[in-house]
Automatic annotation (TrEMBL):
Pfam families named in the record: Semialdhyde_dh (PF01118), Semialdhyde_dhC_1 (PF22698)
Gene label: argC
Active site: C167
One annotated Gene Ontology cellular component of this protein: cytoplasm
GO molecular function: N-acetyl-gamma-glutamyl-phosphate reductase activity; NAD binding; NADP+ binding
Keyword Signal: no
Enzyme type, top EC level: oxidoreductase
Protein name: N-acetyl-gamma-glutamyl-phosphate reductase
SUPFAM superfamilies named in the record: Glyceraldehyde-3-phosphate dehydrogenase-like, C-terminal domain (SSF55347), NAD(P)-binding Rossmann-fold domains (SSF51735)
UniProt xrefs under InterPro entries: AGPR, AGPR_AS, AGPR_dimerisation_dom, AGPR_type-1, NAD(P)-bd_dom_sf, Semialdehyde_DH_NAD-bd
Amino acid sequence: MTATSPSPPEEPSHDPDTAPVRVAILGASGYTGAELMRLLLRHPGVQITTLTGERQAGRPVAEVFPHLASFGLPDLVKMEQVDWANVDFVFCALPHGTTQDVIAALPKTIKVCDLSADFRLANVETYAKWYGHAHKAPDLQREAVYGLSELNRTGVQNARLVANPGCYPTSAQLPLIPLLLAGQVEAQEIIIDAKSGVSGAGRDAKQANLFGEVAEGIHPYGIASHRHAPEIEQGLSLAAGEPLLVAFTPHLMPMSRGILATTYVRLKGGATAADLRATLAETYAKEPFVKVLPEGIAPQTRHVRGSNLCLMNVFADRLPGRAIIVSAIDNLVKGASGQAIQNMNIMLGFDETAGLEVVPVYP
Ligand SMILES: NC(=O)C1=CN([C@@H]2O[C@H](COP(=O)(O)OP(=O)(O)OC[C@H]3O[C@@H](n4cnc5c(N)ncnc54)[C@H](OP(=O)(O)O)[C@@H]3O)[C@@H](O)[C@H]2O)C=CC1
Ligand SMILES: CC(=O)N[C@@H](CCC(=O)OP(=O)(O)O)C(=O)O
């Protein structure tokens, strides 16, 4: 995992007149798979040639996702049935823990963006501690590049395997990394309070995600023990130039999609909340997907639904020397499939916004 300083999108190098890139989506019957299909159907340079499912294999997309019925997509197949000679690029949208074997077995000529957590933690011991088993492909782990697109463009550009960031880590790191690089916030006292829609847990039936367990209420989970904490700490420690720990508490909200992260920081070196805002505004001034809202306007999940946007803002706290940062993303888009397509665009030299020029649905 590497991180570089942000730089604005470069001129695209892919020639749109050449043959389309043939894309396979592994785990197409899941939520992130559906979002990959929805967005890639409007991508000018790719053709979806292969879709896999496990229990849903053998079924047409029209049955599994009726909203995608009319776009001529191929039927879902089992992974074993895939002809890899017909595939140039793979999106791997399988549950974490299952993708290490799958990606290790792919032909090395195929570029891959993995949406799972399997290749995000550079230190395989940290991975084993948080995911409960030894990493099965440590060489690939070393090769993988962490795909926080705006902040690691050069790494992603040269990668064969990109580890797409987790949804909570995307929402937290996009504002915090530039502020730590600028030395404007204390590294050791960061508190991230985050809320997610239920689609963050995937489409698989689980008791915790039943309507009766989620509707008309909100609850924290994974308190002081969520596996996204080490992922966030990895990126923030690199930016701070020192190891750090964060206080991170996720909450489940009665909504289908969206993440809102409210982050509490202690200001450093005489910086003010206005300075933090100015740093973020300058860092992301030329970015198509990351926006600092006008002063005093708080981002909401409703403002990003269905889009690849991350909206953010900074507020002065009433407590002296502190600031509050609010960031919002759609967990299925900037937090998963949208960022994965952004990474593919960078890896293959497409215009970075190709397939992603989606205006949020509101309200
Ligand atoms: N949901 C979100 O907001 C985010 C998800 N992610 C990550 O992206 C990945 C996909 O997430 P999501 O789409 O939500 O998950 P889902 O549970 O909705 O979908 C999982 C997909 O994987 C397939 N699958 C399950 N088990 C296996 C297996 N053993 N072998 C082959 N295929 C299998 C399923 O097939 P079938 O249904 O046909 O059995 C389905 O297509 C996960 O690693 C997740 O952690 C990352 C960021 C955000
Ligand atoms: C609401 C909900 O359950 N969210 C998921 C995170 C989704 C995500 O980014 O997961 P990966 O790291 O596995 O890719 C969770 O808390 O585990």
